[in-house]
Write a structure and sequence with these properties.
single chain
Length: about 260
Protein backbone atom coordinates (compact mmCIF):
# COMPACT_ATOMS: atom_id res chain seq x y z
CA UNK A 1 0.00 0.00 0.00
CA UNK A 2 1.29 3.47 -0.85
CA UNK A 3 2.41 5.82 1.94
CA UNK A 4 -0.30 8.16 3.14
CA UNK A 5 2.08 11.15 3.09
CA UNK A 6 2.11 12.57 -0.43
CA UNK A 7 5.47 13.51 -1.93
CA UNK A 8 5.78 16.85 -3.73
CA UNK A 9 8.37 18.27 -6.11
CA UNK A 10 11.26 18.74 -3.68
CA UNK A 11 10.73 15.20 -2.37
CA UNK A 12 11.52 13.58 -5.72
CA UNK A 13 15.29 13.60 -5.13
CA UNK A 14 14.93 11.32 -2.08
CA UNK A 15 11.59 9.55 -2.66
CA UNK A 16 11.42 8.74 -6.37
CA UNK A 17 12.48 5.12 -6.92
CA UNK A 18 14.12 5.34 -10.33
CA UNK A 19 15.17 1.68 -10.42
CA UNK A 20 11.61 0.48 -9.70
CA UNK A 21 10.36 2.83 -12.42
CA UNK A 22 12.71 1.57 -15.11
CA UNK A 23 11.94 -2.05 -14.22
CA UNK A 24 8.31 -1.27 -15.10
CA UNK A 25 9.40 0.29 -18.37
CA UNK A 26 11.76 -2.54 -19.24
CA UNK A 27 8.62 -4.44 -20.29
CA UNK A 28 5.30 -2.61 -19.72
CA UNK A 29 3.13 -5.09 -21.64
CA UNK A 30 2.36 -7.48 -18.71
CA UNK A 31 0.84 -4.50 -16.85
CA UNK A 32 -2.38 -3.62 -18.75
CA UNK A 33 -2.65 -0.16 -17.18
CA UNK A 34 0.92 0.79 -18.01
CA UNK A 35 0.73 -0.86 -21.43
CA UNK A 36 -2.40 1.12 -22.34
CA UNK A 37 -0.88 4.37 -21.07
CA UNK A 38 2.35 3.76 -22.98
CA UNK A 39 0.42 2.90 -26.12
CA UNK A 40 -1.45 6.21 -25.86
CA UNK A 41 1.75 8.21 -25.29
CA UNK A 42 3.86 6.47 -27.93
CA UNK A 43 1.08 6.60 -30.52
CA UNK A 44 0.66 10.33 -30.03
CA UNK A 45 4.39 11.01 -30.18
CA UNK A 46 4.49 9.05 -33.43
CA UNK A 47 1.50 10.94 -34.86
CA UNK A 48 3.04 14.29 -33.93
CA UNK A 49 6.37 13.63 -35.60
CA UNK A 50 5.02 11.59 -38.48
CA UNK A 51 2.89 14.59 -39.48
CA UNK A 52 5.98 16.18 -41.03
CA UNK A 53 5.37 19.57 -39.41
CA UNK A 54 7.18 18.93 -36.11
CA UNK A 55 10.86 18.97 -36.96
CA UNK A 56 13.99 21.02 -36.44
CA UNK A 57 17.65 21.00 -35.55
CA UNK A 58 17.44 20.75 -31.75
CA UNK A 59 15.00 18.96 -29.44
CA UNK A 60 14.78 19.40 -25.67
CA UNK A 61 12.94 16.86 -23.52
CA UNK A 62 11.92 18.31 -20.15
CA UNK A 63 11.33 15.94 -17.23
CA UNK A 64 12.72 12.92 -19.07
CA UNK A 65 12.79 10.69 -15.98
CA UNK A 66 14.89 7.51 -16.11
CA UNK A 67 13.55 6.46 -19.55
CA UNK A 68 13.98 7.56 -23.16
CA UNK A 69 10.55 6.70 -24.62
CA UNK A 70 9.74 10.36 -25.34
CA UNK A 71 12.48 10.70 -27.96
CA UNK A 72 12.29 7.37 -29.84
CA UNK A 73 9.99 8.67 -32.58
CA UNK A 74 11.27 12.24 -32.28
CA UNK A 75 14.90 11.32 -32.91
CA UNK A 76 14.27 10.83 -36.63
CA UNK A 77 13.17 14.46 -36.98
CA UNK A 78 15.97 16.37 -35.27
CA UNK A 79 19.78 16.50 -35.25
CA UNK A 80 20.51 17.22 -31.60
CA UNK A 81 18.79 16.04 -28.40
CA UNK A 82 19.01 17.39 -24.87
CA UNK A 83 17.50 15.31 -22.05
CA UNK A 84 16.78 16.86 -18.67
CA UNK A 85 15.39 16.03 -15.25
CA UNK A 86 15.17 17.40 -11.71
CA UNK A 87 16.44 14.17 -10.12
CA UNK A 88 20.14 13.39 -10.30
CA UNK A 89 19.36 9.66 -10.02
CA UNK A 90 17.29 9.86 -13.20
CA UNK A 91 20.01 11.74 -15.03
CA UNK A 92 22.58 9.18 -13.87
CA UNK A 93 20.48 6.39 -15.41
CA UNK A 94 20.12 8.34 -18.66
CA UNK A 95 23.89 8.79 -18.79
CA UNK A 96 24.39 5.06 -18.21
CA UNK A 97 22.01 4.27 -21.06
CA UNK A 98 23.78 6.73 -23.37
CA UNK A 99 27.15 5.22 -22.47
CA UNK A 100 25.88 1.64 -22.89
CA UNK A 101 26.51 0.63 -19.27
CA UNK A 102 22.88 0.44 -18.04
CA UNK A 103 21.93 -3.11 -17.04
CA UNK A 104 18.30 -2.59 -18.03
CA UNK A 105 17.16 -2.65 -21.63
CA UNK A 106 14.46 -0.47 -23.18
CA UNK A 107 14.13 -2.82 -26.16
CA UNK A 108 10.48 -3.60 -25.36
CA UNK A 109 9.63 0.10 -25.51
CA UNK A 110 11.49 0.42 -28.80
CA UNK A 111 9.53 -2.57 -30.10
CA UNK A 112 6.23 -0.95 -29.07
CA UNK A 113 7.22 2.19 -30.98
CA UNK A 114 8.31 0.20 -34.02
CA UNK A 115 5.02 -1.69 -34.06
CA UNK A 116 3.19 1.66 -34.12
CA UNK A 117 5.52 2.89 -36.87
CA UNK A 118 5.12 -0.31 -38.86
CA UNK A 119 8.83 -1.12 -38.69
CA UNK A 120 10.76 -4.26 -37.85
CA UNK A 121 12.12 -4.74 -34.33
CA UNK A 122 15.39 -5.82 -35.95
CA UNK A 123 16.01 -2.10 -36.50
CA UNK A 124 16.05 -1.34 -32.74
CA UNK A 125 19.87 -1.35 -32.36
CA UNK A 126 20.24 1.13 -35.22
CA UNK A 127 17.63 3.53 -33.78
CA UNK A 128 19.13 3.25 -30.28
CA UNK A 129 22.61 4.01 -31.64
CA UNK A 130 21.25 7.02 -33.54
CA UNK A 131 19.63 8.43 -30.39
CA UNK A 132 22.82 7.95 -28.40
CA UNK A 133 24.78 9.81 -31.08
CA UNK A 134 22.32 12.71 -31.09
CA UNK A 135 22.26 13.26 -27.31
CA UNK A 136 24.28 16.44 -26.77
CA UNK A 137 23.61 16.80 -23.07
CA UNK A 138 21.81 15.38 -20.05
CA UNK A 139 21.02 18.34 -17.83
CA UNK A 140 19.67 19.16 -14.40
CA UNK A 141 16.40 21.03 -14.88
CA UNK A 142 14.13 22.86 -12.43
CA UNK A 143 11.17 24.11 -14.42
CA UNK A 144 10.15 26.32 -11.49
CA UNK A 145 13.03 28.67 -12.38
CA UNK A 146 12.65 31.23 -15.14
CA UNK A 147 15.93 29.81 -16.44
CA UNK A 148 15.33 26.10 -15.78
CA UNK A 149 19.00 25.24 -16.38
CA UNK A 150 20.51 27.93 -14.14
CA UNK A 151 23.38 28.71 -13.79
CA UNK A 152 23.84 27.32 -17.32
CA UNK A 153 22.12 28.89 -20.30
CA UNK A 154 20.62 26.75 -23.04
CA UNK A 155 19.70 28.55 -26.29
CA UNK A 156 16.09 28.30 -27.41
CA UNK A 157 15.28 25.08 -29.26
CA UNK A 158 13.10 24.05 -32.19
CA UNK A 159 11.11 21.33 -30.39
CA UNK A 160 10.23 20.63 -26.77
CA UNK A 161 8.78 17.32 -25.63
CA UNK A 162 7.56 16.62 -22.10
CA UNK A 163 5.50 13.91 -20.42
CA UNK A 164 3.63 14.23 -17.10
CA UNK A 165 6.03 16.86 -15.79
CA UNK A 166 4.29 20.15 -15.03
CA UNK A 167 1.40 18.58 -13.10
CA UNK A 168 3.93 16.83 -10.86
CA UNK A 169 5.55 20.18 -10.01
CA UNK A 170 2.72 22.72 -9.88
CA UNK A 171 0.50 23.05 -6.82
CA UNK A 172 -2.19 25.31 -8.27
CA UNK A 173 -3.32 26.86 -11.53
CA UNK A 174 -1.16 29.97 -11.08
CA UNK A 175 2.04 27.97 -10.56
CA UNK A 176 1.20 25.70 -13.52
CA UNK A 177 0.92 28.80 -15.71
CA UNK A 178 4.29 30.12 -14.45
CA UNK A 179 6.05 26.83 -15.14
CA UNK A 180 4.35 26.47 -18.53
CA UNK A 181 5.61 29.97 -19.37
CA UNK A 182 9.13 28.93 -18.32
CA UNK A 183 8.88 25.90 -20.60
CA UNK A 184 7.66 27.92 -23.57
CA UNK A 185 10.46 30.41 -22.94
CA UNK A 186 12.92 27.70 -23.96
CA UNK A 187 11.21 27.36 -27.37
CA UNK A 188 12.04 29.36 -30.49
CA UNK A 189 9.22 31.42 -32.04
CA UNK A 190 7.43 29.10 -34.44
CA UNK A 191 8.82 26.05 -32.63
CA UNK A 192 6.67 23.13 -31.55
CA UNK A 193 5.71 21.72 -28.17
CA UNK A 194 4.63 18.07 -27.91
CA UNK A 195 3.35 17.26 -24.44
CA UNK A 196 1.47 14.50 -22.64
CA UNK A 197 -0.14 15.00 -19.27
CA UNK A 198 -2.94 14.28 -16.81
CA UNK A 199 -6.55 15.33 -16.73
CA UNK A 200 -7.89 15.66 -13.19
CA UNK A 201 -6.67 13.64 -10.22
CA UNK A 202 -4.48 14.29 -7.20
CA UNK A 203 -1.90 11.46 -7.02
CA UNK A 204 -0.05 8.59 -8.67
CA UNK A 205 2.22 5.96 -7.12
CA UNK A 206 5.68 4.62 -7.87
CA UNK A 207 6.39 1.51 -5.81
CA UNK A 208 5.23 2.25 -2.29
CA UNK A 209 5.34 6.03 -2.57
CA UNK A 210 2.46 8.32 -3.41
CA UNK A 211 3.26 11.48 -5.41
CA UNK A 212 1.02 14.51 -5.75
CA UNK A 213 -0.24 15.67 -9.14
CA UNK A 214 -2.25 18.75 -10.03
CA UNK A 215 -5.56 17.77 -11.60
CA UNK A 216 -6.62 20.32 -14.20
CA UNK A 217 -9.55 20.26 -16.58
CA UNK A 218 -9.36 20.29 -20.37
CA UNK A 219 -10.57 23.91 -20.46
CA UNK A 220 -8.04 25.04 -17.83
CA UNK A 221 -5.19 23.39 -19.69
CA UNK A 222 -6.13 24.76 -23.09
CA UNK A 223 -6.64 28.25 -21.66
CA UNK A 224 -3.28 28.18 -19.86
CA UNK A 225 -1.31 27.08 -22.92
CA UNK A 226 -2.96 29.82 -24.97
CA UNK A 227 -2.04 32.42 -22.32
CA UNK A 228 1.64 31.47 -22.47
CA UNK A 229 1.83 31.69 -26.26
CA UNK A 230 0.97 28.21 -27.53
CA UNK A 231 -1.43 27.77 -30.44
CA UNK A 232 -2.93 24.29 -30.14
CA UNK A 233 -2.42 22.30 -33.33
CA UNK A 234 -3.88 19.00 -32.12
CA UNK A 235 -5.40 17.57 -28.94
CA UNK A 236 -6.17 13.97 -28.03
CA UNK A 237 -7.43 12.32 -24.84
CA UNK A 238 -6.88 8.88 -23.35
CA UNK A 239 -8.24 6.63 -20.64
CA UNK A 240 -8.66 6.79 -16.88
CA UNK A 241 -6.01 5.13 -14.71
CA UNK A 242 -6.89 2.42 -12.22
CA UNK A 243 -7.77 3.85 -8.81
CA UNK A 244 -5.26 1.93 -6.68
CA UNK A 245 -2.48 3.25 -8.91
CA UNK A 246 -3.79 6.78 -9.35
CA UNK A 247 -6.99 8.79 -9.21
CA UNK A 248 -6.12 10.59 -12.43
CA UNK A 249 -9.27 10.93 -14.54
CA UNK A 250 -7.59 10.75 -17.93
CA UNK A 251 -4.60 11.66 -20.04
CA UNK A 252 -4.10 14.09 -22.89
CA UNK A 253 -1.64 14.71 -25.68
CA UNK A 254 -1.16 18.11 -27.26
CA UNK A 255 0.87 19.48 -30.15
CA UNK A 256 1.29 23.24 -30.02
CA UNK A 257 3.14 25.95 -31.89
CA UNK A 258 4.74 28.99 -30.24
CA UNK A 259 3.14 32.21 -31.41
CA UNK A 260 3.07 35.78 -30.03
CA UNK A 261 0.87 35.87 -26.93
CA UNK A 262 -2.65 37.02 -27.78
CA UNK A 263 -2.82 35.41 -31.23
Amino acid sequence: MADEAMALCDDYAKDFDAEYYIQLFEDPEPNPILANLMSFILTNYHKAFNSGTVKGKTLLDIGTGPTIYSVISAAQHCDNIFLSDFCQSNNDILKQWRDGSLEFSFDKIFEMVFKIEGKSKTDVPERAASIRDKICGILHCDIRDENPFSPNILPQVDIITSSFCLEAVATDLASYERYARNMVGMLKPGGHLVICGCLGGTFYTVGEKKFGTLGMSRDELKSTWKKVGIQIVSWDEGFRLKEDYSDVEGSYSMVGKKVPVGL
